[in-house]
Design a protein that fits this description.
This protein has 531 residues and is mainly β. It is built from no helices and 43 strands. The strands form ten sheets. The chain has a five-stranded mixed sheet with strand order 36-1-42-38-40, with no helix packed on it. Strands 11, 12, 14, 15 and 16 form a five-stranded antiparallel sheet that branches. Strands 17, 19, 20, 22 and 24 form a five-stranded antiparallel sheet that branches. A hairpin with a 4-residue loop joins strand 27 and strand 28. The radius of gyration is 35 Å and the shape is elongated.
Length: 531
């Protein structure tokens, strides 16, 4: 035995930093390797597309194989959703961009930034979609479901219109907003003499957007709708139109409707009806309006000298979805014509709420809602029992609550946004318990001098300063300057203890310092210096 080593044990507070660190060494003698990047072929059933999933590939490298050195950094386009966009996009082989939004929709955008289609889930879409090799799109939603979205029938043809002539009816329409992921092969035309009584008449190829029906009788009112067909099947029906061919010329009666295509609940839009015959406005035509959802200021009236009738459409108060407006026109000399138009009633997005707490305070944060006038924060002391309301204006998305808060009590919260006088859906419910800050009481048991033949055993004991109870699960790390500690890291047991051995370095005499770092639980801090 050559001597003894005096041990000094010190407790040091270490703050936990949840971040990623990038470390560089300047002027060191290091070896550098250069790696070349090639375009990686998607594997494991991913689509062969420019960016089929989050961070590009199955390894999530996030490394793009495309040269962006010539990108000037100027805005090319932007597309507005009705909620925050927290996911990164995926790109299909045809250039379609897929991205989720907090407004509950998965969006498919064309390369020029226009909407191709959108699919509604029942919760915010925060995850990034992935595209399979067969074109199937996979995405998760806050509604607890994973969705598989594949090719399907197209959406209905749009804006079907009918014009009457002498012994003929001409139909025109626009292509569907969504082709279902496959080309439109043909359009089917249905006709009847009563509303809802149509049957198959004929069909035209997928590149044709009009049809003239010459097998009609003057004076008889006919009803039409059109469907679109692709390799996956037939679409739903287009809007229904009615028209009455008349004798005495080759004139064509038509009606044009102009109204906002998208509205929020409890908002309104002017609706302009223009009735023409051979391109000339028809005066004194009786216009009658109805809708399956919503209402009108008047609902009926006559066109002016230019063939125009103006009314106001009011979106419904508590309906989300597509509203159909039915326009029926009856002229004195040119027969009747009708047309349906669709208005999309967009819902109010649901905020996402988070909470934290401390000594006598609670902090709430939520995601903003587009168009919100104010936010109502609901507070309670039991799940689903939030009956106290705190109001905040539209510029507020954080709340520091310090009044009527008691330490040790668990509080429950959710938040709703108000848009155009309508209260939106409730956010997720959060619970949080404020508590005063607690400290560790730390005791270390073991010898103060150690033979260099070692090892020596030490036990750390952790108690809550407030409750005098054992603190389990505290993260402990130990570092020695002139010896070996085993184990050097671990957590305190259910009894609040952690035991380690210390072996001094061979042939070393003198003092050694053992640094003990203790962190977690978050409400506790080691403030006591141990020697």
């Amino acid at each position: 035995m050559r001597g003894k080593i005096k041990i000094i044990v010190m407790g040091i507070l270490v703050l936990l930093l949840f971040s990623s660190l990038a470390v560089g060494f300047e002027g060191s003698n290091t070896t550098h390797k250069t790696y070349s990047l090639e375009k990686e072929k998607p594997r494991g059933g991913l689509a062969n597309s420019p960016w089929p999933m989050f961070h590009y590939n199955l390894r999530h490298t996030g490394l793009s194989p495309y040269d962006t050195s010539g990108n000037p950094g100027k805005l090319k386009w932007r597309y507005q959703t009705y909620g925050g966009v927290f996911s990164s996009p995926a790109i299909g082989s045809d250039g379609t961009i897929y991205v989720g939004s907090n407004d509950d929709y998965l969006y498919a955008l064309n390369p020029d930034g226009s909407l191709k289609w959108k699919y509604q889930t029942y919760g915010g879409v925060f995850s990034s979609p992935a595209i399979g090799s067969d074109g199937t799109i996979y995405v998760g939603s806050w509604d607890h479901y994973v969705y598989s979205i594949n090719k399907g029938p197209p959406s209905p043809p749009q804006n079907l219109q009918a014009t009457a002539g002498d012994g003929q009816v001409t139909l025109t329409w626009q292509a569907p907003s969504d082709d279902g992921g496959a080309s439109i092969t043909n359009y089917k035309i249905y006709r009847g003499t009563s509303s809802g009584g149509e049957s198959y008449l004929t069909e035209v190829d997928g590149s044709t957007l009009s049809y003239t029906d010459t097998s009609v009788t003057n004076g008889q009112t006919y009803y039409y709708y059109v469907t679109a067909v692709n390799s996956a099947g037939e679409s739903e029906e287009s809007n229904e139109v009615s028209v009455t061919p008349q004798s005495g010329g080759n004139g064509q009666l038509s009606v044009n409707v102009d109204v906002h295509s998208t509205l929020m609940p409890r908002t309104s839009s002017k609706i302009y009806i223009n009735v023409t015959y051979n391109g000339v406005g028809v005066s004194n035509a009786l216009v009658s309006l109805s809708a399956d959802h919503g209402s009108f200021y008047s609902g009926s009236g006559y066109t002016n000298s230019k063939g125009t009738y103006i009314d106001t459409y009011y979106a419904p108060l508590d309906y989300i979805g597509t509203a159909t407006i039915h326009v029926n026109v009856n002229t004195e000399n040119h027969g009747k014509v009708s047309r349906d138009v669709s208005v999309n009633i967009e819902g109010i997005s649901r905020p996402i709420l988070t909470a934290s707490a401390g000594d006598g305070w609670i902090k709430l944060s939520w995601t903003p809602v587009n168009g919100a006038k104010w936010y109502w924060v609901y507070k309670g002391t039991s799940p689903g029992g939030e009956n106290e309301v705190i109001e905040y204006d539209s510029t507020t998305t954080e709340a520091n609550i310090t009044f009527q808060i008691s330490n040790g009590v668990t509080y429950y919260f959710y938040v709703r946004a108000w848009v155009n006088g309508v209260e939106g859906p409730a956010s997720n419910e959060v619970s949080v318990t404020p508590n005063p800050k607690d400290n560790f009481k730390v005791s270390i048991y073991g010898p103060h001098t150690v033979s260099n033949q070692g090892p020596a055993m030490y036990t750390i004991k952790l108690l809550s300063e407030r409750s005098e109870t054992a603190v389990s699960g505290a993260v402990i790390s130990i570092l020695s300057s002139h010896g070996t500690v085993t184990p050097s890291t671990g957590t305190s047991s259910v009894s609040g203890t952690f035991t380690f051995s210390y072996t001094p370095a061979s042939n070393y005499e003198g003092s050694d310092t053992i640094n003990v770092h203790i962190t977690k639980p978050a409400l506790m801090e080691l403030q006591k210096k141990l020697t």
